[in-house]
Structure formats: C-alpha cells, structure tokens
Amino acid sequence: MSTSLPLVFDAPKRGRPPRHLADLTDDELKSAVIALGLPGFRANQLARHYYGRLDADAARMTDLPAAVRPQVAEELFPRLMTPVRHLDCDGGTTRKTLWRLHDGTLLESVLMRYPDRATLCISSQAGCGMACPFCATGQGGLDRNLSTAEIVDQVRAAAAAMRDGDVAGGPGRLSNVVFMGMGEPLANYKRVVAAVRRITSPAPGGLGISQRSVTVSTVGLAPAIRKLADEGLSVTLAVSLHTPDDELRDTLVPVNNRWSVQEVLDAARYYADKTGRRVSIEYALIRDVNDQPWRADLLGKKLHRALGPLVHVNLIPLNPTPGSEWDASPKPAQDEFVRRVIAQGVSCTVRDTRGQEIAAACGQLAAEER
C-alpha cells in the first residue's frame, strides 16, 4: 500500500492565489506586518479585524493609520472571492453562493440554517479529480487546489452573513462547517489542515468554531486518513463509501482501484482509535445501483466488524444532476436499506436534503455558469 498521495491528484497549475492574511501563521503575519514597516502589534490588530470582526476590508480598519491602509489592503487583504450569484430556497434558510476567484475559477458554498444550528458546506478545490460518475463536480474535472485563505474566506463570509441577518431567521451564528463541497479535501491536504486550524482556533488567531463541529469528508485516500488521525485534531471524519463491495466501488469511486474498501475501513478505524471520534459513512443511495437489500446487509456487517460502535451511516438520497442516468432510490427501498443496516448493529439515518430547486448538488451551479 502506498504511503504517499499519488501525483495524479495534484491540481493543474492556474493563477497562483495572492497571499492573504488567512494564509499566514501568527509568526508569519507578524513578520509580514514588520516587513511593511509597521510595528509588530499591528499583526494582532489585523487578525482581530479579520477573524473577530469578520472584516476583510482594510479601508474600514480605522484604527490603522489612513496612509498605510492601501498598502495593507494590497499585501494582506487582496480580494479573493467575488460572489457571482446567491440562490435561496427552503424559505430563505438555504443559500447557495457561486464565487468567482481572482483567476476566473468558479467555486460553490452552501449555507443551511436549521432551528438549532447553521451549517456551511465549503469547497476545498475548484472542481474535483476523483471522477465519481454520479457527481457533477467529479464529471467536470479538477481546475486547481484552493489556497488556505480561499477556504477560510468562505467560512468568514458565511459567518458574517449569519451575524448580519442575511439568511432568513434574523441574526445568528455559524456553528458548523463541513468540507463536503467541491473537491476532495485530502487531495489538498496541507491547505485543508491549515484551514481547519484557522477555522477552529480562537480569535484573534482564528474563527473560533469548535473542532467537533467541523467535518472533513473524503472518498477514501487511506494514507491521508491515517495522516489526519495523527494531526491531533478532533474533527469528524466522513468517508464517502457508497457501496460495501470493491466490484461496484471500483466504478462508483474510481480511487477504490488504489485503496480497497477494506483498506479504507482499516484507515477509518485507525482514525477512530486515535481521536475517539465516531466516523461517519456517507452513502448516496442510487436506484437499482447500490440500493439492493444484500448490499445493506453487507454494509452493516463490514462496518460493525471494522468499527463497532464508532460508526454512523449517513444515507443520502441522490440529488440527480440534469441529464444524468442516475436517480434516487424510491422511499420504500430507502427505508428497507436503513432497517437492514440497523439490524446489523450499526446506526443509520437519512440525511435531510436541501436545495434541490437551486442546483444544490456540488458542481451544478458552476457547470451552469460555464
């Protein structure tokens, strides 16, 4: 088994994102501030504006001398993302945003407000190189990796939208972040881990969201799962399994040709043991493809054997993309699938689906814009 990620997962080179405050560690930010001819204490001041006040506009930072604000804006607060459009549904409680990056690259994020929480689904890459045939993003291919700041700024923008009452329900707080948007997070490993640390560090060093409220999803890059387990983080790992057998998974999730179902589950067990966190198994239920009763039985048996009580199955009714041959399973098949997995001693629930009328499946909005 390989101990490093294959080069095929490297993103094509496009325009390199400009350096931003959110790319920098505390020490790097202090050095950058001093290089601008400013005293070191300004680093803490700038971090408080960005992470604490959720403000990325240096022109509004009136505690900075007016003469230095343009230079600070250019060097530490370049505009990373411009909203192309917002689409709302579910009474305004679900908001999908299409962003255009500095080089014209498109990405998506989805903010979902529930009675007890507000969750942001973010992208870690523009596009995706995993080529899963039922996924709109996977079919569009990989444009490039996102920078740490491009990942973090999706969260800052959503946190500001919640605070300012831009989402139905009035002012509130962003509580959860899931790396389930465009891209394979563990194929952009270094930047994703850096972004997680920024998202979860307390202000002024970060956005202060609990690590336990952050979920990192993967299609199953087994060595990277083990590496993540050793980072000392308490984030939830979500594995997009989609079928318990290698024969079908080789087709549905092509990376399975590199790391088998068993290798992925072994890595997931290592993660659960190291972190004490329950692993979430994502399973998109596709009509007449992976929804057979025997697959539900096999899934339950394999998960119970590999992870015991440290696993939960998150069954996802497929959100079909226009022109796709794939369709969601009928509700009776879905209910029977849930029943059979639970009968094997594994907890299983159906994910609440949102935003179908606004092309909420990853990659749909970007594909339409292109």
UniProtKB/TrEMBL annotation:
Details of cofactor binding: Binds 1 [4Fe-4S] cluster. The cluster is coordinated with 3 cysteines and an exchangeable S-adenosyl-L-methionine.
A Pfam family of this chain: Radical_SAM
Domain Radical SAM core: 114-357
EC number: 2.1.1.192
SUPFAM superfamilies named in the record: Radical SAM enzymes
Group of enzyme by EC: transferase
Note, other: Reaction proceeds by a ping-pong mechanism involving intermediate methylation of a conserved cysteine residue.
Name recorded for this polypeptide: Probable dual-specificity RNA methyltransferase RlmN
Gene that specifies this protein: rlmN
